[in-house]
Amino acid sequence: MSWLDKIKPSFVSRPSDDDAQRSSVPEGLWRKCVRCDAVLYRPELERNLDVCPKCNHHMRIDARRRLDIFLDEESRVELATEVEPIDRLKFKDTKKYKDRLIQAQKTTGEKDALVAFQGTLGGKPIVAVAFAFSFHGGSMGYAVGEKFTRAANIALELGCPMVCFSATGGARMQEALISLMQMAKTSAVLERMRQAGIPYVSVMTDPVYGGVSASLALLGDINIAEPNARAGFAGPKIIEQTIRQKLPKGFQRSEFLLERGAIDMIVSRQDMRSTLDRLLSKLRHEPAGSTISPSVVGFDVTDAEATDGEYIPVVKDRVADDS
C-alpha cells in the first residue's frame, strides 16, 4: 500500500461498492427520447411500440420489428431473400462501396435496406415491405428496387394488397444510374398494380427523401404518414441555401403535408394495423375485423355517407370497381 492510500479518506474508496451495483444493471435498460429528453424504461417503451408516452414522438424502429408489429404472427414468408447488392461500378470514395456493404450487413444483419414479407393482416393475405434506415440510410439501389418489384409481382399474382413502410434518404449514390433506374422500375410495377385493381398503400415514416419520395413513396392509392415524420425530395437546409429564404415552421413534416394535400392521412403507430386493415377491406369490398380509430388525422368520422361513425374513403382512380 502506498503512502497516498494510507492518508486517503475512507469515503474516497466507497464508490467502488456503487460501481459494483451499477455494473449489475443491464446495459440498454433505459432510452432517452430525442424530442422531450425523457428517460424511458426500455421494456415499457417497446410495449408502447417505441412511441414516447410523454410527447408521442415516434422513434425509429428497424424493418423487421415494424413488420412484426404490423403482420399477423402466423403464415409469414420472407420474399426475395436471395437478392443481394452488387458493386457493378467498383465504386470507391473514401472507402470501397463493397466494404461499406459488408460493414452494413454485419451491423444490421440484413443483406440490404429492404425487407419483404408475404403474410396476413386480420387473417387476409397481404404483401408488406419495409425499409431499414440503419442500412446505408435506407437508400435504394439495385437490391432494394429488385426486392420491391418482386414483392409487387407476388401481390399481383395473388391478387392481394401491398403495403410499403418507407424510411430512406433516397437513391444510393454509389450505384449512380443503376440506382436511378429503380425509380422507373418500381413505378412501372405499381402502374401494373393500378391497372389490375390491386390496392397499394404507402406509409411514410421518418424520414423519406430523394428518389424514393419521387417514386414509390408517393404513388399509393392512399398515402399515409406517421406523426411528425419528415418527407420531401430535398432537405430543408438545402432548399433554404438554394432559395435564400427561411422556410415556414414544420416544413416537410407530415402535419404540414396533410394540410396542403400532399398526403391523405396521419396514423399513429398504435393505430396502424387496425386502420390499414379497415382501409384495405373497404378498397377490396371485404368485411373488416376493426374500425378506423376516430383519432386518425385526415378522416372525418362524422361523414354523412358513413355508417356507425366510420369514414368510407374515396380512392383517387387506382382501384378497379368490382361491380
Average residue-wise pLDDT: 87
Helix content: 25-40%
- Looking at the structure, what is the overall shape? globular
Counted beta strands: 9
> Given this structure, which CATH class of the domain at 60-283 is correct?
Alpha Beta
What is the CATH superfamily label of the domain at 60-283? 2-enoyl-CoA Hydratase, Chain A, domain 1
Number of helix segments?
11
| CATH architecture descriptor text of the domain at 60-283 | Alpha-Beta Complex
Features:
single chain, 323 residues, alpha/beta, 2-enoyl-CoA Hydratase, Chain A, domain 1, 7-stranded mixed β-sheet, 9 strands, 14% strand, disordered C terminus
Descriptive overview:
- The structure is a single chain.
- The protein is built from eleven helices and nine strands.
- A seven-stranded mixed sheet has the order 3-4-5-6-7-8-9, sandwiched between helices. Strands 1-2 form a two-stranded antiparallel sheet.
- It starts with a helix and ends in a 40-residue tail after the last helix.
- It is 33% helix and 14% strand.
- It is an alpha/beta fold and 323 residues long.
- Helix 6 packs parallel to helix 7.
- The chain has helices at residues 3-7, 15-23, 42-47, 63-70, 97-108, 142-158, 176-196, 210-213, 236-243, 254-259, 272-283, and strands spanning 30-32, 39-41, 77-78, 114-121, 124-131, 162-168, 200-208, 222-225, 265-266.
- The chain has a domain at 60-283: Alpha-Beta Complex (2-enoyl-CoA Hydratase, Chain A, domain 1), CATH 3.90.226.
- Strand 6, helix 7 (176-196) and strand 7 form a beta-alpha-beta unit.
